[in-house]
């Protein structure tokens, strides 16, 4: 349902107003997705319900193939670049925004119980950087991880920038929060996962690991790493590096480890 | 040699003025490094000559162990936060800057000829994004690549942000430019490298590759990839991904491939 908007103060596009300011506060029931690539994933591969779309008029032609995928009653707001920028509060170069519902968070036990017998899960502890969390979800989607678990300190994957950096990966890979790193390990063990904790001080070397049927990969933040009590009760694994330069980005680390776990043993 | 600066217009700190504006223009003979981590690499592991250092007074105590590593005649300018911000032109939170000399670029033949018999080299084609180039150098340093080759379209690794993202990796791994991707492949072949070109359409699968004694890994930009004539004359290799989500960041890709090449076969 197309609705042309000419007044930036139109009450129908309230949800698109002052995007950055609301990003900072956080949105409890909704999230904002931006850009054509992300909208395509949201429409085709995601579990989230789209409430509405706001498009620059100049983008309509290029997006024609996607719009019929929206439910007929979903509003497609269109506006000039100028009106769109005024609504959003900054120049929105991509000219493509959508508002979707977060849905109800799934308890971790329920999420893990519906995974297949052979499964790969990622657990994030204390990852406060949206670029890193977005990058990890991108890798999780690329290597077919079935779920991502987040502790309370890990930032919101449905933050606009994290979605963009993930190239829509956060919309594809199911995720849920757990109360703590310890609760994460307990839930994974209860669901018969071998829990691998990546750490520079890990006892085993990643390239020697043969994944079992259900494997979970835990990642901590670049400085502090995973907490000692998690390292004490899991299989710790390191990625050896060249002398004197012991430094990898955590998203890159997730890519290296997921690639190894996805393609070793099973040799797909 | 410590020199306290109290006047932002002091002619001795000319090289630190308007850092961002000069970043955009580019510096022909010098570069700017920022932050404690990068300064540490510059002092301890790099081949570059430091011309001077500019430090916020509040940082002096924390950096005390590093400063004796500077040549005695190298100026260590110190200033208050306020004066430092006025010199640089924006709030320089890290409070640590250095100016170093680029040195004379080494011809590719000379660089390759002095590498050991067993060597791993990275070649970058058309990579215009400083985050990606910085990220790739970080991985090259972490996995002990001996050199990085850049075509003319690849951006400057000595740009301030690329150095920072590389965590100093661009200061550690030798690099040089070649006139074109074709010249890169020719120089590598002449130096007995097997040239592996990463591409989503690659014939071989990365996890099956056993690296030979001298291996070069070529990477192109995320959209266009490597040019067809390069793919036609090299061994093309792909990283298989999960159905429907065929997308990896190029820096992550470099990390996955370098990890595989560094630890397979030799099983270090």
TrEMBL record, chains A, B:
What GO molecular function annotation could you give as one example from this UniProt entry? RNA binding
Q: Which CDD domains match?
A: SpoU-like_rRNA-MTase
Q: Which Gene3D superfamilies match?
A: 3.30.1330.30, 3.40.1280.10
A biological process (GO) annotation for this entry?
methylation
Tell me the superkingdom of the source: Bacteria
Q: Which key words are in the record?
A: Methyltransferase, Transferase
Can you give the residue ranges of the tRNA/rRNA methyltransferase SpoU type domain? 120-259
PANTHER family per the UniProt record, alphabetical: RRNA METHYLASE (PTHR43191:SF12), RRNA METHYLTRANSFERASE 3 (PTHR43191)
What is the recorded name of this protein? RNA methyltransferase
